[in-house]
Automatic annotation (TrEMBL):
Sorted UniProt keywords: Aminotransferase, Cytoplasm, Glutamine amidotransferase, Repeat, Transferase
Catalyzed chemical reaction(s): D-fructose 6-phosphate + L-glutamine = D-glucosamine 6-phosphate + L-glutamate
Name of the protein described by the UniProt record: Glutamine--fructose-6-phosphate aminotransferase [isomerizing]
Active site: 361 (for fru-6p isomerization activity)
Residues that span the membrane, as ranges: none
Subunit structure: Homodimer.
Species assigned in the record: Stenotrophomonas ginsengisoli
């Protein structure tokens, strides 16, 4: 069942255009972002809420962290994101007008389930689950549900489940934006068009695999790596560092690039590869000056820049060009290269890609 692929992880990385197309299918077919995507009574619930609280673990938490940028800027609602295992053990402030969104591909993660129960015990009645497994525990315990359609994910390191979570969260954002008067008909058409082009842009990013595999050879010998991003791409830097840690056992950390000089710059020398996610957005110039700080300390830069970023390679600066800038959906497209970088570095190191040591696919214990 692996077909032409060597591992499930590689197969699942390549399934992303299809998984995304399936996840956005209902919106594309309807030609609009309709609240009914989230259940029959979703419109009433989603129009009445005044904020969002997202609870999740691991990769799903990074999907939520990306969604915070979307929800606050596009839907104009306050959004906070918290690691489920932290939330469940603190005396949290609960505003019952806020919607609790849990994100869990398995739907069985104990910490996320317990965080949901805890939120309810604090008075939250409005809850929404984004999940990849039909009728699993967390969606069953939630008022509203949106299933991603990634299909079964076998590799322990999450890939297609993550990008489809992002697609679902983007759809939620636009639905909320419409209901709260922040997204007008013209903008909706625009978002629809961007979503329609998403599977194709992801396919273009997949075509970069040979170039990324060549980079990965050099990563395989490193002991550490830094990942940098800003804004919407900061959570993708986090996801890239997590994938690298999980399957290559290389120590990797991610920072919002603006934080460099507040500490991590001290780590940078010739031995530290620095991966930068640098598409052409409003923060690009800032990212470029952060990159100069790295170069000045001898750090080797590996830059993912889109066609519009206007970057060229130079001494110590390697550049791979991702597809044309895709606007707010850019974090989804830029997830693909960091997944492939981790995958190929793991291949070069000969680790067990689909079953990394010490990890389980579904974490049903604390
Ligand atoms: C990392 C990974 C984990 C999961 C986390 C939550 O690649 O897969 O970090 O994201 O264990 O799992 P779910 O989404 O099933 O709640």
């Amino acid at each position: 069942e692996l077909g032409p692929y060597r591992h499930f992880m590689q197969k699942e990385i390549h399934e992303q255009p299809r998984a995304l197309a399936d996840t956005i299918d209902a919106v594309i077919n309807a030609g609009s972002f309709d609240a009914s995507l989230f259940g029959a009574n979703a419109e009433a619930v989603l129009s009445g809420i005044t904020g969002i609280k997202i609870l999740a673990c691991g990769t799903s938490y990074y999907a939520g962290s990306t969604a915070k940028y979307w929800i606050e800027s596009i839907a104009g609602l306050p959004c906070d994101v918290e690691i489920a295992s932290e939330y469940r053990y603190r005396q949290a402030f609960a505003d019952p007008r806020h919607l609790v969104v849990t994100i869990s591909q398995s739907g069985e993660t104990l910490d996320t389930m317990e965080a949901l129960k805890y939120a309810k015990s604090l008075g939250h009645t409005h809850t929404l689950s984004i999940c990849n497994v039909q009728e699993s525990a967390i969606p069953r315990a939630s008022e509203l549900v949106c299933y991603t359609r990634a299909g079964a994910e076998i590799g322990v390191a999450s890939t297609k489940a993550f990008t489809t979570q992002l697609a679902a969260l983007f759809q939620l954002t636009v639905v909320l934006g419409k209901l709260h008067g922040k997204v007008n008909a013209e903008q909706e058409v625009d978002y629809l068009e961007q979503l329609r082009q998403l599977p194709g842009s992801v396919q273009h990013a997949l075509n970069l695999e040979p170039q990324i595999a060549a980079w990965a050879e050099r990563f395989a010998t490193k002991a550490n790596a830094l990942f940098l991003g800003r804004g919407l791409h900061y959570p993708i830097a986090l996801e890239g560092a997590l994938k690298l840690k999980e399957i290559t056992y290389i120590h990797a950390e991610a920072y919002p690039a603006g934080e460099l000089k507040h500490g991590p710059l001290a780590l940078v020398d010739e031995a530290m590869p620095v991966v930068v996610i640098a598409p052409n957005d409003s923060l690009l110039e800032k990212v470029k000056s952060n990159m100069q700080e790295v170069r000045a300390r001898g750090g080797e830069l590996f830059v993912f820049a889109d066609q519009d970023s206007n970057f060229s390679a130079s001494e110590g600066v390697h550049v791979i060009r991702t597809p044309r800038n895709v606007g707010v959906l850019s974090p989804i497209v830029h997830t693909i290269p960091v997944q492939m970088l981790a995958y190929h570095a793991a291949l070069a190191r000969g680790t067990d890609v689909d079953k990394p040591r010490n990890l389980a696919k579904s974490v049903t214990v604390e």
